[in-house]
Design a protein that fits this description.
By secondary structure, the chain is of the alpha+beta class. It is built from eight helices and 20 strands. The protein binds zinc ion (2 copies).
């Protein structure tokens, strides 16, 4: 199957909730950066009337639904106001599914920076089921966690690349645990608000939408080219998200467009989010647009590594294979690409297994 890469930014707040940009302003920023799509998710308000094409950026409207300070849920394609379900996470997940929508657990683990004085908003309802996946990497949530004092506030506001490292280890570990139970797909978000903070002696907008659109993006592999019809093109985005045909790219360390992760068996190719039955050894192939430190993870364990722009690996074992790529900046390895798994089974499960 031919797949087409679409690069976009997910988890954005507008003036409908606590963001500072209008739909038009935010779309303009996405246009300037060259993003293919945006998914707007205001707090407990669905502004679906603003969805549409804004020049060459497809703007989709979801919602971040939640009670106070726990269990933030990113709702996509429910096409309805979901805030009335905010108090009960499972009821919310069920209501979204009943409307054919998708849902991702937002910033499931947070660390509060002592200086930012904002509450940690964690996902606590881990007994729920039926959600599509989780927001593995939330740029603003991570950024705020490193603001421990006025000096770091100022330093990191001026040089955010010094702060950012990647998804938290506990979020990655939780994802691997969930992958052991069922397919759970990852997306990246920026939690873009473009709010002005006082950072030490400076009053500074942290950060503009334009800045954020060059940080943590979600790259989707859609099954057909776009044709300019809003419903058709939006459906391709939703389909890719539902199937996990996605990887997260932190563009500040180098553009990630062109990354690929595939499995090949007997001439058949599989990619992100796919499941196949192994009839013997198969080959996994990672390709990067630039050199990086590649880690191939199977069921939570690293099974192969390379400092290269490519990695081949002959495999036999079943499980969820996923890829992480790091790059060095200012003396530290930092997260660059996090890709959804390819799932491999070695035999069909019989009834009762
Ligand atoms: Zn949130
Ligand atoms: Zn948010």
């Amino acid at each position: 199957m031919n797949l087409y890469e679409r690069v976009g930014n997910i988890h954005i707040h507008t003036t409908y909730s606590d963001g500072t940009g209008t739909f038009e302003e935010i779309a303009q920023a996405a246009n300037e950066v060259g993003l293919d799509y945006l998914i707007i998710t205001d707090h407990n308000v669905y502004a679906g009337q603003h969805a549409g094409w804004y020049r060459h950026t497809l703007v989709l409207v979801g919602e971040e639904v939640h009670p106070n300070n726990i269990n933030h849920y990113l709702v996509i394609n429910a096409q309805d106001e979901m805030a009335p379900y905010a108090q009960n996470a499972q009821a919310l997940i069920n209501a979204v599914r009943a409307r054919g929508g998708l849902g991702f657990l937002a910033h499931p683990f947070e660390h509060s920076g002592a200086y930012a004085r904002e509450p940690e908003i964690n996902w606590l309802a881990w007994d729920v089921h039926g959600y599509t996946g989780l927001e593995l990497w939330n740029y603003m949530s991570e950024f705020k966690s490193y603001i421990s004092d006025p000096l770091h506030a100022l330093l990191y506001a001026l040089f955010p690349k010094l702060a950012i490292r990647g998804p938290y280890p506990e979020t990655l570990a939780k994802w691997d645990e969930l992958l052991g139970q069922r397919p759970t797909f990852a997306i990246g978000g920026t939690d873009a608000h473009a709010i002005t903070y006082r950072m030490g002696p400076l009053k500074r907008q942290v950060f503009s939408y334009r800045h954020l659109f060059r940080t943590v993006n979600t790259h989707l592999l859609v099954s057909e080219p776009w044709n300019g019809n809003f419903d058709h093109d939006a459906q391709l985005i939703y389909e890719a998200l539902a199937k996990g045909r996605a990887f997260i790219g932190y563009e500040a360390l180098g553009e990630t467009r062109g990354f690929s992760f595939t499995a090949e068996q007997g001439g058949e190719l599989y990619t992100l989010g796919d499941t196949f039955l192994a009839r013997g050894p198969f080959t996994l192939h990672v390709r990067l647009p630039k050199k990086g430190h590649i880690r191939l993870i199977l069921n939570g364990f690293c099974v192969a590594e390379a400092k290269s722009n490519e990695l081949y690996y002959q495999a036999k074992a079943p499980g969820a294979y996923r890829v992480e790529v790091y790059r060095s900046f200012a003396g530290k390895l930092r997260g660059w690409i996090f890709a959804n798994p390819i799932f491999v089974h070695t035999r069909r499960r019989g009834k009762g297994n």
